[in-house]
Design goal:
Elements (H helix, E strand, L loop, with lengths): L3 H31 L12 H27 L17 E4 L7 E5 L7 E4 L2 E6 L4 H6 L7 E6 L2 E10 L1
Parallel strand pairs: 2-4
Antiparallel strand pairs: 1-2, 1-6, 3-4, 5-6
Length: about 160
């Protein structure tokens, strides 16, 4: 069975790499905003203003990655079984995904992140996503129905871990 602690470590590692990229981008944007070359030469010169907005946006990304890492570090990992209800921290496999060894991990943030662990493909989804909303509160063997774009997905929860 999949080791959730390993999975969370992989997610935190990826978020940490993205955090470092965001820190570097924020530093570069901040440096550009205060650079002598950014000083407005005319009333129509908006380079310094644009650089300031970019620096602010990059700083927000840094904060979001820091909060995401903290959310995963604070995540209490519990074992789920056939009598459990799907909630944050659950690994869920739909019947159609069983042959492909694909699982969904219900995470607090970082929806869309994908990785492989122990020859299993894992996609992180959040409770706010359409798939997350379809799964939260369900149990093993429960049917789900979800609209993904114009396609209707009908399946059932084959495994819960």
């Amino acid at each position: 069975m999949l080791n959730k602690k390993q999975l969370v470590n992989i997610i935190v590692g990826a978020l940490t790499q993205e955090l470092q990229k965001a820190i570097n981008a924020a530093n570069e944007a901040h440096a550009a905003a205060v650079d002598d070359q950014s000083v407005a030469e005319t009333q129509y010169d908006t380079l310094a203003i644009e650089a300031g907005y970019l620096a602010e946006g990059q700083s927000k990304r840094v904060s979001e990655f820091q909060q995401a890492i903290e959310a995963y570090q604070a995540l209490e990992l519990v074992a789920f079984d056939e009598n459990s209800t799907v909630t944050i921290g659950a690994l869920v496999q739909l019947a159609a995904d069983s042959p492909n060894n694909h699982w969904f991990f219900i995470g607090p943030v970082a929806g869309g992140f994908r990785c492989n662990l122990a020859e299993q493909a894992i996609t992180v989804i959040t409770p706010q996503s359409p798939m997350g909303m379809a799964l939260i509160g369900k149990q093993q063997d429960d049917d789900i129905e979800i609209m993904l774009g114009s396609n209707k997905l009908e399946d059932y929860i084959a495994q819960l871990s």
